[in-house]
Amino acid sequence: MPTPRTMSALVAQGTGEPSDVLRLETRPVPAPGPGQALIRVKATPIHASDLHVLRGRYGFSPDFPAVGGNMECVGRIEALGPDTGGLRIGERVVVAAVPAVPGPALAGTWQEYLVADRHRILPVPDSLSDSSACQLAVNPLTALLLVTRELDVRQGEWLLQTAAGSTVGRLVIQLARHLGVRTINVVRRRGAVEEIEALGGDEVICTEDEDLVRRVADIAGPSGVRKAVDCVAGPVGAQVSKALAPGGEVVVYGALSTHRQTDPAALTIPLQARSVIYETKTVRGFWLNRWFGTTEPADALHALSEVRDLVTGEALTIPQGRPFPLDRFPEAITLTESPAHGGKPLFVFEDGQAGTDG
Ligand SMILES: NC(=O)c1ccc[n+]([C@@H]2O[C@H](COP(=O)([O-])OP(=O)(O)OC[C@H]3O[C@@H](n4cnc5c(N)ncnc54)[C@H](OP(=O)(O)O)[C@@H]3O)[C@@H](O)[C@H]2O)c1
């Protein structure tokens, strides 16, 4: 079979609104170097964070022009560079393309082929759908790390979380049930409550018509809640901190309430100094990129294989994504940030060969 030489890639020319700066381009298929594999991409998600990278509002910035999609994909190994023992051509794999911070830049995933470092490649069984496999390395890994490493929530303990209907939120609920942890789940829409209960959320608070702090006190009683994860920030994040028992800890891993703001001064969590000082509460952050940058590659792959086993063992179900071909990117991107958008938009590539120059 002749080596494919050109492929489609969705490339950002610089920072700006994604629909303005992204262009579909034809690029040469890259060649794998030492310790690298060439992956034929089958499916790759559009995460909100991918769009923030393009807007220049994320924790790292690539050199432009840059292929979009900085997180993850599933595909098959097409070619191997030297020093890639243990991997095989044809193998179906997940690539954790999240750039480590601090660390080197990695290839974007919104393209038909990419080269990936062997430390970021995990074989996955064919029983795992493309939709689940291409979403394995970011949200499920984040859920696992938040619950079991960052907070070490124990059986019978309460865990309070915001945006419970998000992909991460749904995975946190399932993982909590698996571990015997009880969850208090905050959502912004009444329409989401039943769904979260059906998924196994023990308690649901809807900020549309309920007071978060009062409801947490009613649910948890005098001993209160000591552990929380928040991806909304802003006033909701502050309410979460306020709702915690003295000595409690909230890990902030997202800022959904601030996503469309461009004024850095507005990207805040207005905490009460009294509660932080006199009740010695902790608010700290988690960022997967920094976790990859500070974790030994073998340990990171081990954590990723833990997630794969939870998903293939059906303890965790990743919500089904919604497929789009690469050329329908404006529609897919709009959907990513629409309220109540349902399945996460995924770029999918048909099986087949990339074009050739001659
Ligand atoms: N720090 C890290 O390393 C890390 C890793 C993974 C994910 N994250 C972050 O985790 C968050 C969730 O990601 P995801 O992929 O799971 O999201 P997702 O599946 O796209 O879901 C987004 C959810 O957030 C809710 N939401 C959006 N804006 C909101 C607001 N202003 N207030 C309250 N809820 C709001 C939506 O509610 P509706 O259903 O009502 O629309 C929806 O349930 C994102 O901020 C992401 O960047 C961070």
Structural features, described:
- The chain has 358 residues and is α/β, with parallel strands linked by helices.
- It folds into two domains: 6-136 and 297-348, Medium-chain alcohol dehydrogenases, catalytic domain (Quinone Oxidoreductase, Chain A, domain 1, Alpha-Beta Complex), CATH 3.90.180; 139-286, NAD(P)-binding Rossmann-like Domain (Rossmann fold, 3-Layer(aba) Sandwich).
- Helix content is 29%, strand content 23%.
- The chain is built from twelve helices and 16 strands.
- The protein has helices at residues 18-21, 48-55, 130-133, 139-150, 167-179, 193-199, 212-220, 234-243, 273-278, 288-294, 297-312, 329-336; strands spanning 6-12, 22-28, 36-45, 66-67, 72-80, 92-96, 113-117, 121-123, 158-161, 182-187, 203-206, 227-230, 249-252, 282-285, 322-324, 345-348.
- The strands form three sheets. Strands 3, 5, 6, 7, 8, 15 and 16 form a seven-stranded mixed sheet that branches. A six-stranded parallel sheet has the order 11-10-9-12-13-14, sandwiched between helices.
- Strand 15, helix 12 and strand 16 (345-348) form a beta-alpha-beta unit.
- Helix 4 packs across helix 5 (167-179) and helix 7 packs parallel to helix 8.
- The radius of gyration is 21 Å and the shape is globular.
- It starts with 5 loop residues before the first strand and ends in a 10-residue tail after the last strand.
- Mean pLDDT is 94; it is low at 353-358.
- Bound molecules: NADP nicotinamide-adenine-dinucleotide phosphate.
Task: Give a nutshell description of this structure.
The protein has 358 residues and is α/β, with parallel strands linked by helices. It has 12 helices and 16 strands.
